[in-house]
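TASK: fixed-backbone design
INPUT:
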């Protein structure tokens, strides 16, 4: 089951991309594609051809889908990029057989763009249906592929380092991918348990006024980790893991005095740790364990004048062997395109202000 160029049988189109060797890549070209499987082609095109329309908007081309046929029209460079995107999406649904989200489409676009900057055009064209971004796999979700170069670097860092720091804005997949990687290590037998933690720092509200016992008080702070766990594991497996202690979710304060061996340890929202808390957490690492520290330095909820343990740690530990660091930007937001625009707007407003107006704790900075 493959896609063919112009109705030819056999493998996907190979060799020279459209426009190769032509004097101008801005000249409009027409690129036909034919997919062998009508059902898989419909998954690529999306409901009411929404994926086709999304690619048209993102790449500045026009594409007409009819049955298992597709005709792409536009500048040669854009048309070739669109061709690679459709082939990647077809390879993905052929491997998984499930519908694609707009996030998957954006991921294929970014992957094709990254390939074009790293490899010769002819090589990229001949391997358009070959995945290059790395992935993690769990039993419940199957393979989850990185959607941009930053996520690709993140997954690679998680695999090659015992301690990884991931910084960046909301919606970049820092916590979600970290939990997915931790679950995959647990399922493959590379770890015996998961320890997932966050600092219980009040973001404008008082923890003591929440109803219930200690666990009920801190559960709202740990809810994003629960959500990610249920994304990657069956609910019954999560519940059994929590009951047996194979999965432990606890506030950072409960880590003092422990040595964590043969475990994957994740600290989320690490920008809200103090220097002492971060040092305490990092020194819990035991034999056969890995640590992942995630946070967003632009959302610090510590009291004014208190230095973030995350900000300090990445500076102090820079260049230490066995430690990886990945920094996400607003362009790496994958949650929703509107979220990316919101993050960009806030970044522009913050960096556009004067130095006197800047506060290391943005939550406490008065609105303009």
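OUTPUT:
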């Amino acid at each position: 089951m493959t896609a063919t160029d112009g109705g030819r049988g056999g493998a996907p189109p190979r060799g020279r991309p459209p426009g190769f060797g032509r004097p101008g890549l801005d000249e409009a070209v027409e690129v036909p594609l034919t997919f062998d499987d009508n059902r898989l082609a419909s998954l690529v095109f999306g409901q009411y051809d929404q994926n086709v329309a999304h690619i048209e908007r993102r790449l500045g081309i026009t594409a007409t889908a009819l049955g298992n046929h597709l005709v792409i029209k536009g500048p040669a460079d854009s048309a070739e990029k669109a061709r690679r995107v459709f082939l990647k999406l077809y390879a993905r649904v052929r491997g998984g057989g499930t519908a694609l989200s707009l996030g998957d489409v954006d991921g294929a676009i970014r992957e094709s763009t990254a390939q074009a900057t790293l490899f010769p055009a002819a090589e990229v064209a001949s391997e358009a249906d070959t995945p290059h971004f790395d992935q993690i796999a769990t039993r419940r979700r199957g393979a989850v592929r990185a959607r941009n170069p930053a996520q690709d670097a993140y997954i690679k860092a998680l695999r090659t380092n015992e301690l990884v720091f991931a910084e960046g804005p909301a919606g970049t997949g820092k916590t979600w991918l970290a939990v997915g990687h931790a679950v995959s290590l647990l399922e493959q037998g590379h770890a015996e348990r998961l320890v997932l933690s966050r600092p219980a720092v009040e973001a404008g509200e008082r923890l003591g006024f929440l109803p219930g016992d200690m666990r009920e008080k801190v559960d709202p702070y740990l809810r994003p980790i629960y959500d990610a766990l249920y994304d990657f594991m069956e609910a019954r497996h999560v519940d059994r893991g929590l009951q047996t202690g194979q999965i432990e979710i606890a506030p950072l304060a409960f880590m003092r005095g422990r040595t964590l061996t043969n475990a994957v340890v994740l600290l989320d929202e690490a920008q809200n740790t103090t220097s002492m808390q971060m040092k305490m957490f990092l020194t819990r690492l035991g034999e056969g364990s890995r640590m992942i520290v995630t946070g967003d330095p632009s959302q610090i909820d510590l009291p004014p004048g208190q230095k973030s343990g995350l900000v300090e740690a990445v500076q102090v530990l820079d260049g230490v062997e066995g430690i990886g660091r990945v920094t996400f930007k607003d362009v790496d937001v994958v949650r929703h395109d509107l979220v990316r625009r919101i993050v960009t707007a806030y970044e522009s407003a913050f960096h556009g202000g004067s130095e006197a107006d800047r506060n290391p704790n943005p939550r406490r900075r008065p609105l303009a």
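COMMENT: Residues 188 and 256 are 29 Å apart (CA to CA).
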